[in-house]
Amino acid sequence: MNDTTIKSGGLRGKIKKAGWGILAIAFLGGILFWGGFNTVLEMTNREEFCISCHEMKDNVYQEYRNTIHYTNRTGVRATCPDCHVPKDWTHKIIRKIQASNEVYHKLLGSIDTPEKFNAKRLELAEHEWARMKKTDSRECRNCHNYASFDYSAQGRRSNTMHQKGFAEGKTCIDCHKGIAHSLPAVEQNIGAAKNGAPPEIFHPSTVEPNAPKTAVAPAESY
Amino acid sequence: MKPTARIFRNLLLTPLFAGLLAAAPLMLHAAPGEGVAKLHSLRGTDVQAPDPETDMFRPERDRGPIERNFVQQPPIIPHTVQNYTITKNFNKCMDCHSWSRYKETGATKISLTHFKDRSGTDHANISTRRYFCLQCHVPQSDAKPLVENTFKPASALQ
Q: How far apart are CA A169 and CA A47, in angstroms?
């Protein structure tokens, strides 16, 4: 009796000891794995990583270098991932999984010359416009919080247009297209047609498809 | 003085003046800048010297349309156009000033003359010869004029 209690106590002690050990190893392993995973993930969220592919470096990066998000008075910059990768974890992982398609097309060489890139420019731009529209321009709003706009400090045009736009339920990308990269061809009724983005895509109507309908139901006839 | 005497004097003096004129470059060479108007650029430096550093000019703040100074003056741009680009694909100016966009944006719509091609035929679309807006329409900065300008529009247009 005495022996068994001692034995079982020892066994429990051993399990206890091993349990703590396993827990500690799992904990450390978790830190290492997660830390490693996150480090590699964040490695791919840097401008240097983006422009390590010539597809980005020779096309969109060169265009971006002329814009206010690259060079400005105070030197505050928005780099590629600031606009193209969501900040919060869930959306970031979803976007990163989608980006495997980009790796696939990198291997295929779908846009590996400026000619190929320009041929696909409208399609690529439309993907980004749609993504921004869907999230209410979430990546813009990481920095540009329109609740904090000081309209008195804005120019005459931005002042009126911003207030009008927000009142109509517009989001940043509805108007601010092509602010960091050259635009694809856009139909503007100048000279011959150029097979570009039609007006309904370039300036989408302000009523969102899933926005609550403001129109009042027709009154019942008496 | 008798007329003959005057002629005689002039005959004497003319070669003297001519000689002086001929010697002038030599004299200038000996003593540069003495009593001779110096040439300088509009910015006040020697014509051969590089221009002095100018102030930084800022584009003027947005405002309403600016009055024209003469008939058929292309209206000047009363807002900043920094980072507005005109490429083969897209004309930033026409994103607000075209007939299809001006109502929404509140911009001045472009003139009907811009729909004419060079043979004077009207078209439904804007003529491509008007594509580069800044060839005629210019934005304003706070730069001070280098030379005073007293131009006034005709009184009927004031």
A: 32
> What CA–CA distances, in Å, run from B6 to B2, B12, B17, B56, B101?
6, 10, 16, 63, 82
A127 touching B (Cβ < 8 Å): no
Nearest to B126 among A160, A185, A189 (CB): A189
Which pLDDT tens digit goes with each residue over A142-190?
999 988 999 999 988 999 999 999 999 999 999 999 999 999 999 999 9
**Domain residue spans of chain B:** 1-38, 53-158
Q: Do B63 and A156 touch (CB under 8 A)?
A: yes
Buried b vs exposed e over B32-59: b needs ≥16 C-beta within 10 Å?
eeeeeeeeeeeeeeeeeeeeeeeeeeee
Q: Does A213 touch chain B (CB under 8 A)?
A: no
Chain A CB contacts of B128 under 8 Å are: 190-191
pLDDT for A209 beyond 60: no
* Residue that is written with structure tokens 């300008």 in the block: B149
pLDDT in tens, B81-111: 988 999 999 999 999 999 999 999 999 999 9
Measured between beta carbons, which residues in chain A are less than 8 angstroms from residue B98? Answer: 188-190
Structure confidence at residue B146 (pLDDT): 82
- C-alpha triplet B114, B117, B120: angle, nearest 5°: 100
CB contact under 8 A, A185 and B89: yes
- Per the rule left: phi > 0, alpha: psi between -120 and 50, beta: everything else, B138 is beta
Report whether pLDDT(B23) > 90. no
For chain A, give every domain's residue range: 13-43, 49-144
> How far is residue B154's CA from residue B158's CA, in Å, rounded to a whole number?
7
Domain B53-158 belongs in CATH node 1.10.1130.10: yes
pLDDT-derived band at B113 (thresholds 50, 70, 90) equals very high
* Amino acid identity for residue B27 in this structure: M
Confirm whether pTM is higher than 0.80: no
